[in-house]
């Protein structure tokens, strides 16, 4: 039987152990006689799931006590509106600074312009979004409400491997980071950020859950137009239970958090991710059949876009990959080519299988 490796950018692969546990508990969660999907979100059974998931996430990221963990809906794209709606109420005339590093920061800029003045402090558009603009090139507003970064561009394959210093690099403005596609893949110092957010469907769990980690002093600043269900202060005061949360997605995320702890936590997972990314990038750099266009210092460990030099072979590459059980390698429609997303749940063996296939395909095509 062919082993399947799913390289989808999201919704993405989940750990097999998590899926097996969810399957075993599908009809009867811990003797309750109910599936998690059938539980009252305010019942003792689900509240225990919610509490454990929040605590496990706090443990994994060493989230300080003065930050709230919010379980929301709307995805990362929704947060592009929810963030300015939550942070501009006290200073509606202030400017938001953005660093434009690719498709997702571009979407964030467009959405924020509906609610506030926006300054694109730096952009990598001129080099085709193959790097993060140098920090000394950022033209920041003197008194910005906040600075928005997308710290891993899922489509373009660009990742920040540094954290800007609030005092030196952002004029004291808090940093808001969209970490949708690399949260929990590497150690981070949460205290360096004002807000961290991300959709769950890339590296945490199924689609439907969005996580926001918000510093306490940034609560209570919402614009009047902000819906109550997305007002961080209201959500925090109600323990993410102001409205019915995405209960099953939270349950699966909680299982993923437990799985991550069993793997040794985020530090151990980061080392595994470095090994996977190094294997794939080393092969791409060794061949003239494929190419990765991102500058080496900014390459994503999670999302690896690559191109066949002869793009007339794209269709046959994807067909042959599918026959080998290597799925969803087609690049995003906006950039073309291929993309391998190698999130936490992708085993090292999956990347080995991909590299071996790519070698064989290149050799066969040269004949």
TrEMBL record:
The keyword Transmembrane helix does not apply. It comes from the Bacteria. Residues 4-354 form the Aminotransferase class V domain. It catalyses: O-phospho-L-serine + 2-oxoglutarate = 3-phosphooxypyruvate + L-glutamate; 4-(phosphooxy)-L-threonine + 2-oxoglutarate = (R)-3-hydroxy-2-oxo-4-phosphooxybutanoate + L-glutamate. CDD domains: PSAT_like. One of its GO terms (molecular function) is O-phospho-L-serine:2-oxoglutarate aminotransferase activity. One of its GO terms (biological process) is L-serine biosynthetic process. InterPro entries: Aminotrans_V_dom, Aminotrans_V_PyrdxlP_BS, Pser_aminoTfrase, PyrdxlP-dep_Trfase, PyrdxlP-dep_Trfase_major, PyrdxlP-dep_Trfase_small. The keyword Acetylation does not apply. Its EC number is 2.6.1.52. GO terms for cellular component: cytoplasm. Its cofactor is pyridoxal 5'-phosphate. Coiled coil: none annotated. Keywords: Amino-acid biosynthesis, Aminotransferase, Cytoplasm, Pyridoxal phosphate, Pyridoxine biosynthesis, Serine biosynthesis, Transferase. Pfam families: Aminotran_5. Pathway: Cofactor biosynthesis; pyridoxine 5'-phosphate biosynthesis; pyridoxine 5'-phosphate from D-erythrose 4-phosphate: step 3/5; Amino-acid biosynthesis; L-serine biosynthesis; L-serine from 3-phospho-D-glycerate: step 2/3. The modification N6-(pyridoxal phosphate)lysine is found at residue 202. Catalyzes the reversible conversion of 3-phosphohydroxypyruvate to phosphoserine and of 3-hydroxy-2-oxo-4-phosphonooxybutanoate to phosphohydroxythreonine. Belongs to the class-V pyridoxal-phosphate-dependent aminotransferase family. SerC subfamily. This is Phosphoserine aminotransferase. It comes from Undibacterium jejuense. The lineage of its organism: Bacteria, Pseudomonadati, Pseudomonadota, Betaproteobacteria, Burkholderiales.
